Amino acid sequence: MSRTTTTASRGTASRGVAALWRSTVGKKAVMAVSGVALLGFVVAHMIGNLKVFLGPESIDGYGRWLRAIGSALLGNEGVLWVLRIGLVVMIVLHMTAAVQLARRARAARPEHYRSRRPVQGSYAARTMRWGGVIIVLFVVYHLLDLTAGVLNPHGVHGEIYRNVTADFQLWYVTLAYTVAVLALGLHIRHGIWSALQTLGVTSARVVQTAALGFAVVICVGYLSVPFAVLFGLVR
Q: How far apart are CA 61 and CA 160, in angstroms?
């Protein structure tokens, strides 16, 4: 294949990707893919957090294992940094697509009505915007706290158990964590609800039960750690 043909093919592919991104269908696809990736991270991170109940060696050893993955190729924490960058990319894509889709939806609605019927949908759907902002702000704080250790009362790299227990002994840290996790739960509930409807699940009871059940599991899993520390069950 000649260089001209290769360049033309790349140009066609780039225009195709750009056209897909500009379309409503493309933005919804980006939201779906990034949402699934982020949900996978949320579940994996929750499972890792629960190791705190097995003691310091379990969760600290888990942290050492994560930092050592692929070290022969990318160095210590190399894979973790790849995952962190990928996570940031997914968050940016997810938020950008969500904002642009919301703007398109508002632009498509008729305006200048003297009265308007109440907006239909769940509380989660009506609070997706501020919920997303809370989650992003908390992610930034969480990284500075438990990843970088800058805001952590203990703040020793690698001592995950001590960092976690030092954090959640403070009631205001637990409160902030609770607000962020509940916002995440609402976000997940609405996301799963929308995804199941898009996939053609027509039973409202099945959709609501599945979405709410998954969100509750996530919230309970994440909140079990800070409240266990706050009430002295984990020291």
A: 9
CB 174 within 8 A of CB 145: no
- pLDDT recorded at residue 119: 45
Over 70: is that where the pLDDT of 99 sits? yes
Residue indicated by tokens 């990284």 = 143
Report whether 179 contacts 134 (CB < 8 A).
yes
Provide the 3-class DSSP secondary structure of residue 54: helix
3-class DSSP state of 201: coil
| Beta carbons of 163 and 154 less than 8 angstroms apart | yes
- Buried b or exposed e, range 76-105, using 16+ CB within 10 angstroms: ebbbbeeeeeebeebbebbbebbebeeeee
| Residue 68: other Cβ atoms inside 10 A | 14
pTM summary value:
0.85
Q: Which residue has the tokens 């001592």?
A: 159
Alpha helices, DSSP H, located in the chain: 3-22, 24-49, 56-68, 71-74, 78-108, 123-126, 128-142, 160-168, 171-198, 204-230
